[in-house]
């Protein structure tokens, strides 16, 4: 250490030093002595030995009367700063010299006076040694305490009765920015610009002699600090105040953190209470205990829950609601938060929601901090509600003691979706009927041909029977042709009925080439009238498609009819419409309908699927829009592009049948 810590009694506030003052005086002395050179220590030992020998010589070989041996105490004081061993050694030497001198001086001529002086000297030396050792122990303890104060990160400042700084520790230097040499002797309030209630401090001093509280001070760089401070009033032996010793800790950052936390908690509370969606905080400790009973493969956990619905029920029963916001109270039609707090939702979830809940619990059990799924629950009033349930385990709650649950009411959304799907189905049916109307001539031709053939073959068979010798072979041949043409007419009617029916067909596997053939059968006469050649090709063997067969066929017929219409005005090239089937990525099948018509204007490419957009004077603009809706509902997509040559190509995809279906 390079700076002196010595302070006079006057520096510490006048009067006799208190125990606190002595602590710092002892620390300064010990610190000073600890830096004494080795030579000084040796001189102390030599001086003590010389003094002891001189006293011994005088005591042993002179006739000086009195307890001269008491002077050995001076030698003990000389070596006292050198440590415990030096003190004890000096005391032993002093007592030994005293006894030896007594023996040499008096021999066998003992008298009571000499013996009393001997005892007095030995007792004096012993008592002095004990007092020095006790003082040293006290001083050592005080020095250690002083070192602790010096090493403390808290600030320690001693002020006199005039508020002048007389001690300033390292913690004060680091916190306030002034060195000890700059601070000592300065007026504390002027230096640190203290802000506190002096009346409160004085009242505490008068009542208890100390004060604890917060105050604001200013650093050297001008920054304000908030301190948690403890002040002890220093008094002299007469009980008169002589100053203050204080210890302070910087709590500025802590207060800022606490304020930020309070603000955050207030924001959270405001959001929680005013959110337009249901939110509640739950204790899921028991839920986690229930789920932790499973010790098998975590990848099979969801299947285990599905196979054991009683476990799912127990897990739901263990989720206890702590607090719910007003939106949750409204969702459950509870009337008040108290009716939800402390309860669980067992019995609120409908059985059909258990698979969704099992999936949600399995996600959390695998270590995810959040999970979401749609479930159906029943309010306290018995009303069924569809909700999207979002469960979040709070970051500081690995034991699931604090779980935040959010529920978004999607009942109206689901009802609206159902209405839209119903409307879409009805619109698609209307479009199919309209499409059949456009193909009525072609359909009539397709039906009329086999009916005409049936009539001709029936008349022919009748003639063969009316002969004198009926030709039964020819009659049988005519009947077979009648059956064939009847089946042909029935197949045409079957296709028309399939497109015209209004019922929703469940998704199932079907053959794409077959529905292409059926679609071409409906438009073949129309194509023949317009001089269009129809071609169908496939890129190898295709897997079965999966979806609504009728609606996919409707899309095909619509696109084929659009292609035929697009080639009405083509006169400079062969009219041809090609349908190409193939495999697309991601488990999809691809269908391309390509014509050689006029194509689309560039600005119309992005609008062809918009409702009511049409490039035909007689069109309504709903055909392609309905096609897109159908294909996207099936899980595919549809696009249109102009060919590099004449015409355009419409491509759509439908899912292939999964391998495990």
UniProtKB/TrEMBL annotation:
E.C. no: 2.7.13.3
Keyword Nucleotide-binding: yes
GO BP: regulation of DNA-templated transcription
Keyword Transmembrane in annotation: yes
Catalysed conversion reaction: ATP + protein L-histidine = ADP + protein N-phospho-L-histidine
Regions crossing the membrane: 45-78, 84-102, 114-133
Gene3D superfamilies: 1.10.287.130, Histidine kinase-like ATPase, C-terminal domain (3.30.565.10), PAS domain (3.30.450.20)
Keywords, in A-Z order: ATP-binding, Kinase, Membrane, Nucleotide-binding, Phosphoprotein, Transferase, Transmembrane, Transmembrane helix, Two-component regulatory system
Residues of the PAS domain: 141-186
Histidine kinase domain location: 442-658
UniProt cross-references to Pfam families, sorted A to Z: HATPase_c, HisKA, PAS
Broadest EC class assigned to this enzyme: transferase
GO molecular function: ATP binding; phosphorelay sensor kinase activity
Protein name: histidine kinase
């Amino acid at each position: 250490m390079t700076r002196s810590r010595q302070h006079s009694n006057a520096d510490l506030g006048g009067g006799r030093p208190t125990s606190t003052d002595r602590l710092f005086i002892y620390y300064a002395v010990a610190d000073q002595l600890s830096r004494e050179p080795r030579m000084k220590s040796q001189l102390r030992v030599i001086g003590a030995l010389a003094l002891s020998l001189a006293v011994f010589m005088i005591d042993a070989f002179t006739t000086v009367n009195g307890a001269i041996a008491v002077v050995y105490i001076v030698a003990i004081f000389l070596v006292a700063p050198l440590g415990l061993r030096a003190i004890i050694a000096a005391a032993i030497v002093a007592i030994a010299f005293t006894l030896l001198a007594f023996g040499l001086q008096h021999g066998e001529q003992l008298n009571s006076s000499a013996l009393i002086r001997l005892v007095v000297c030995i007792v004096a030396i012993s008592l002095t040694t004990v007092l020095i050792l006790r003082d040293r122990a006290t001083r050592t303890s005080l020095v250690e305490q002083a070192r602790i104060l010096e090493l403390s990160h808290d600030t320690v400042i001693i002020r006199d009765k005039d508020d002048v700084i007389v001690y300033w520790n390292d913690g004060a230097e680091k916190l306030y920015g002034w060195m000890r040499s700059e601070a000592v002797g300065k007026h504390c309030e002027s230096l640190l610009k203290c802000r506190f209630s002096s009346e409160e401090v004085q009242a505490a001093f008068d009542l208890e002699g100390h004060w604890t509280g917060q105050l604001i001070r200013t650093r050297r760089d001008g920054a304000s600090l908030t301190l948690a401070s403890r002040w002890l009033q220093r008094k002299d032996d007469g009980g008169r105040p002589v100053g203050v010793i204080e210890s302070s800790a910087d709590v500025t950052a802590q207060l800022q953190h606490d304020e930020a936390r309070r603000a955050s908690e207030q924001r959270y509370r405001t959001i929680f209470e005013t959110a337009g969606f249901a939110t509640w905080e739950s204790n899921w400790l028991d839920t986690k205990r229930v789920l932790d009973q499973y010790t098998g493969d975590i990848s099979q956990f969801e299947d285990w829950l599905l196979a054991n619905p009683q476990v799912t029920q127990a897990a739901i029963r263990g989720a206890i609601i702590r607090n719910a916001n007003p939106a949750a109270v409204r969702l459950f039609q509870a009337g008040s938060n108290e009716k939800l707090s402390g309860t669980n939702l067992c019995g609120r979830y409908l059985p059909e929601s258990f698979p969704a809940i099992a999936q949600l619990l399995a996600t959390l059990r695998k270590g995810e901090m959040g999970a979401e799924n749609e479930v159906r629950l029943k309010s306290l009033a018995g009303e069924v509600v569809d909700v999207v349930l979002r469960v979040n385990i709070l970051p500081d709650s690995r034991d699931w003691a604090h779980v935040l649950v959010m529920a978004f009411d999607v009942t109206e959304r689901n009802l609206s979706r159902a209405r839209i799907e119903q409307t879409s189905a009805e619109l698609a049916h209307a479009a199919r009927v309209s499409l059949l109307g456009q193909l009525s001539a072609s359909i009539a031709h397709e039906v009329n041909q086999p009916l005409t053939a049936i009539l001709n073959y029936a008349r022919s068979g009748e003639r063969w029977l009316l002969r004198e010798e009926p030709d039964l072979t020819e009659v049988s041949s005519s009947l077979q042709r009648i059956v064939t043409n009847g089946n042909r007419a029935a197949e045409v009617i079957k296709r028309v009925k399939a497109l015209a029916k209004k019922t929703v067909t469940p998704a199932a596997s079907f053959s794409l080439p077959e529905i292409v053939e059926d679609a071409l059968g409906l438009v073949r006469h129309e194509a023949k009238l317009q001089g269009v050649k129809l071609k169908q090709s496939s890129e190898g063997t295709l897997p079965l498609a999966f979806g609504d067969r009728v609606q996919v066929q409707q899309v095909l017929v619509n696109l084929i009819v659009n292609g035929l219409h697009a080639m009405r005005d083509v006169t400079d090239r062969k009219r041809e419409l090609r349908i190409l089937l193939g495999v697309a990525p991601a488990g999809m099948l691809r269908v391309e309908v390509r014509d050689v018509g006029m194509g689309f204007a560039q600005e119309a490419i992005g609008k062809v699927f918009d409702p009511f957009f049409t490039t035909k004077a007689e069109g309504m603009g709903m055909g392609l829009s309905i096609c897109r809706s159908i294909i996207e509902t099936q899980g595919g997509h549809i696009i249109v592009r102009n060919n590099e040559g004449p015409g355009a190509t419409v491509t759509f995809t439908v899912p292939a049948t999964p391998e495990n279906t």
